[in-house]
Design brief:
The complex is a heterodimer of chains A (388) and B (337). By secondary structure, chain A is an all-alpha fold. Chain A contains 15 helices and two strands. Chain A folds into three domains: 98 residues, Serine Threonine Protein Phosphatase 5, Tetratricopeptide repeat, CATH 1.25.40; 60 residues, LysM domain (Membrane-bound Lytic Murein Transglycosylase D, Chain A); 142 residues, Serine Threonine Protein Phosphatase 5, Tetratricopeptide repeat (Alpha Horseshoe), CATH 1.25.40.10. In chain A, 62% of the residues lie in helices and 3% in strands. Chain A has a two-stranded antiparallel sheet with strand order 1-2. The radius of gyration of chain A is 44 Å and the shape is elongated. Chain B contains ten helices and 18 strands. The chains are: A mainly alpha (388), B alpha/beta (337). At the A-B interface, helix 1, helix 3, helix 5, helix 6 and helix 9 of A face helix 1, strand 1, strand 2 and strand 6 of B.
Chain lengths: 388, 337
């Protein structure tokens, strides 16, 4: 009984142990049928050691280091591999410190593009090197590069003269593109033209206007015969078209629907927080003008007068708004005056009086309105007295 | 014989308790348990020779205790499924957080969306259908969407990211995010960051309310600052230093207080309105306590990007899928050998 029971208990124990450590392979259960024996560790590790050597020979030291580490993961007792790892690590450390030194020196002389490449090289060798990382982040600001395709006859100096206005900076172009300082340029070669701190980079977009497409000329007219130098392919614009303030966008949408009331409400909301927003101010003028004009066309003189008056307060000379305002004022005055007459004839004196008062509010010099108002008020007074 | 009856049960019970061992072994004799793989370990790597077919997910679950790290195995080995007998190298930790190699360095694109609607309008109101198409493209191409926190860890050399990583951002705080973007993002398991300018919240007809924003935050969307009024932050001509300081206080500090009151958390990053900034603005942004700030310069970000001028690429309504995909450059080639 006992002889049979023990192995079973051992299996239970082994399984429990496997659970606890999560590494069942370390606790081979005795009853598991033996699989084929694993190949010896050295054989398994060999491809990684070979790979490490090849990568190291190719100058890819970091990847070589990883391959060596993997080989040693499989076969930790391989003394030769361990020695190679140590030698490789020493080689990497040496290169890292040399690159850091060169990077710092390049920063000192203001060659940021070169410095940047040294610091990048450090990170390729030593991916967690904070010194290089921070130098890249803080000391080599985004260097803008233009791309230039060399044309026949161009030299480093002529390019430097063109892009920087300084022939001497040909060295910078050479250094950036890993060329000798006096290298000859082959037509068709694509070069990087770096931004140099403190020097205005002559961007293609910022150049004097490119030769225009030939205008149709009258027969016999002399054609302009001074072909301007062909500019390099234009670089993409540096500034993105600006995004639009959402309230402004909503206001524009409202204008498109001819919902001027909503547009003005959006704009006033926007202007409440940014009173100097030029886009909003301009759009508001435009909306008031369009709205006032359309109200005038629809003979809504009262509305038109109010709208155009609002426009006059912020932009007195806007388009022909002054003329429109005069027109709508005249029509509104006539409208009030005539309806006063109508009420008067209908013997509705208080209503007539209100209309003429409205006329005088807009036009205090309106003689007839004044006369009629006085007469109507006298009449009303007499009527009141008679009733008493 | 009485003992013989409980022993198999005990074995089965112990095996059953081994929840992490797939597949759950049936209550059967021990001899049928799956063969365990050969495993070699060091501080940096685990080398596994599986005896049954494995996937990056199953290996990540077992050896990295996190199925979410399957990408590490995929990217290190270049494969996602493994045959018995095949050696699999599992990196135990980040092996190249900045992604600089002798042939160049990796970039993380950040995309900017604005307003969505059923129909496109102008450049900045994108159709919901085209947005959905872009998101499905990202999913099909295997992109991971990052939280802002994950991205910022990358910019501090503290975190390696999956190679195909992208940050999705939505500017201003449009209500259309809720209607059109949210359902798609949820379905695809994507996350996003909203840069909201506080004057707009609850204001325009198309604006999110504070309640909306709070709900989105609870769902895991990141809410960050986009100034108070969406004005150009740069010092205006004729603006005195004192006026500028005062305006910057309103544009930069006030939103932080308001966010804190409204959603219990002050934002620590800001997207520049119109993407515009200058040296004075940077100083103010830093002094106000923002740790990162975002422009709209159309390029990807290396890990060593300057944290106050992080690049973002605006997606416009009229972009074709090809043009959209051009904003997803993941690597800057540069020969560093």
């Amino acid at each position: 009984m006992i002889g049979r029971r023990l192995p079973l208990l051992a299996v239970v124990a082994a399984l429990a142990a496997a659970c606890a450590t999560g590494e069942p392979e370390r606790t081979a259960a005795p009853t598991t049928p033996p699989g084929p024996p694993p190949p010896p560790r050295a054989a398994l590790a060999a491809p990684y050691n070979e790979r490490a050597q090849a990568l190291e020979a190719d100058g890819r030291l970091r990847e070589a280091l990883q391959a060596r580490q993997i080989a040693l993961t499989i076969n930790p007792d391989d003394a030769a591999a361990r020695a190679s790892l140590a030698a490789l690590q020493a080689r990497i450390d040496e290169q890292v410190s040399a690159q850091l030194k060169e990077g710092r020196a390049a920063l000192q002389r203001g060659a940021q593009v070169v410095a940047r490449r040294h610091f990048l090289a450090v990170l390729a060798l030593d991916p967690t090197n904070r010194t290089a990382f921070e130098a890249l982040r803080d000391q080599t600001p985004d260097v803008e590069m233009l791309s230039h395709t060399v044309r026949a006859g161009e030299t480093l100096s002529s390019l430097a003269s063109h892009y920087y206005g300084n022939r001497a900076l040909g060295e910078v172009i050479a250094e950036t593109n890993k060329l000798a300082p006096n290298a000859r340029l082959a037509a068709g070669t694509v070069l990087k033209i770096p931004e140099v701190p403190g020097v205005t980079l002559n961007r293609p977009g910022a150049r004097p206007p490119a030769p225009r497409a030939p205008l149709p000329t009258a027969p016999g007219a002399p054609t302009a015969a001074t072909p301007a130098p062909v500019p390099a392919a234009p670089a993409p614009p540096r500034e993105e078209p600006a995004e639009v303030n959402p309230l402004l966008a909503e206001a524009r949408e409202a204008v498109d629907r001819q919902d001027y009331y909503q547009a003005l409400s959006d704009l006033d909301q926007l202007l409440a927080s940014s009173p100097k927003n030029t886009d909003a101010l301009n759009l508001k003028k435009q909306v008031l003008y369009t709205q006032g004009k359309s109200q005038l066309d629809q003979k809504k003189y009262k509305d038109s007068y109010a709208t155009l008056n609002q426009l006059a307060r912020i932009a007195p000379g806007y388009e022909d708004s002054a003329t429109l305002l005069r027109q709508t004022r005249t029509r509104l005055v006539d409208e009030y005056y005539n309806s006063g007459i109508r009420y008067y004839r209908e013997e509705k004196l208080p209503e007539a009086i209100a209309q003429w008062k409205a006329v005088l509010e807009i036009d205090p010099q309106h003689v007839n309105a004044r006369k009629n108002l006085d007469q109507a008020e006298r009449l009303l007074k007499q009527l009141d007295e008679r009733r008493k | 014989m009485r003992r013989a009856a409980w022993l198999p049960i005990a074995i089965a019970a112990v095996a059953w308790g081994c929840a992490s061992a797939p597949p759950p072994p049936p209550p059967a004799p021990v001899v049928q348990a799956p063969p365990t793989p050969d495993v070699f370990e060091s501080p940096d790597f685990i080398v596994v020779i599986p005896k049954t077919p494995e996937t990056s997910a199953s290996l990540a679950t077992r050896y990295l205790n996190d199925v979410g790290k399957a990408w590490m195995i995929e990217e290190f080995t270049g494969a996602s499924s493994f045959q018995p007998g095949q050696q699999v190298v599992i990196p135990r930790k980040d092996w190249n957080p900045a992604g600089v190699t002798p042939s160049g360095y990796r970039l993380v694109p950040i995309l900017v969306y604005h307003n969505l609607d059923a129909q496109p309008k102008g450049r900045l109101v994108q159709s919901a259908a085209s947005f959905e198409q872009q998101m499905r493209y990202l999913k099909a191409e295997g992109y991971h969407t990052l939280t802002l926190a994950e991205f910022l860890e990358f910019t501090r050399l503290n975190r390696q990211l999956p190679r195909k990583s992208v940050v999705l951002t939505f500017d201003d705080g449009y209500k259309s995010f809720k209607q059109f973007a949210y359902p798609v993002l949820k379905e695809l398991g994507f996350t996003a960051t909203l840069f909201v300018y506080t004057d707009y919240v609850g204001a325009g007809r198309n604006a999110l309310s504070w309640a909306d924003i709070k709900a989105l935050q609870a769902e895991g969307f990141d809410i960050q600052a986009h100034s108070k009024t969406h004005g150009d932050l740069r010092r205006a001509p004729g603006e005195t230093a004192a006026q500028f300081e005062q305006r910057m206080h309103a544009e930069l500090a006030q939103p932080r207080d308001l966010f804190k009151r409204q959603i219990g958390q002050a934002p620590d990053t800001i997207a520049y309105p119109y993407g515009r900034w200058d040296a004075d603005v940077l100083k103010q942004v830093k002094a106000t306590g923002y740790v990162a700030a975002f422009t709209v310069r159309r390029q990807g970000n290396p890990a060593f990007v300057s944290p106050l001028t992080i690049h973002r690429s605006q997606i416009y309504a009229d972009m074709s899928l090809d043009e959209f995909a051009k904003n997803l450059t993941l690597f800057q080639e540069e020969d560093l050998r």
